[in-house]
Amino acid sequence: MIAPHVAALSVSCLGVSLLFIQPFAAVSFAQTKQAAFPAAPRGVVIIEPHIPAEVQGTLRSFNESLSRGLDPNDNAAVILVDVCGEGVFEPALRDASMAMLGMEAFSPAGPRFEYIPAYCQRVSTSDSDWEQLYERLQTQLLTALEEPWQRAEREDLAAYLDVNSAALDAVVEAANRPRYYAPLLSTEDPPRLMSGSFLIEHRLPFLTRCLASRGLFRFAEGNFDAAAKDLMACHKLAALLAAGSPLDVSNAKSQSLDANAFMAEKALLQSGQLTKEQTIALLESIRQLPALPTAEFAADRGERAILHQEIEFLKAEAITLDDYLEVEREGADLDRRSPSVVLQWDQALRRADELQDRIVEAFRLDDREIQSAQFQILDSELKAWRARNETEENQLFNNLRDDPEAASQWVGEDMARALQSNCWQRRHTDDRAAVRRRLIEIGLALKAFQLEHHEFPAALDGLAPFFLPEIPLDPYSQVAFSYVRDSDQQVRLICWGANQDDDAGKIFNDDVMLIVR
Question: What's the pTM?
Answer without folding.
Answer: 0.88
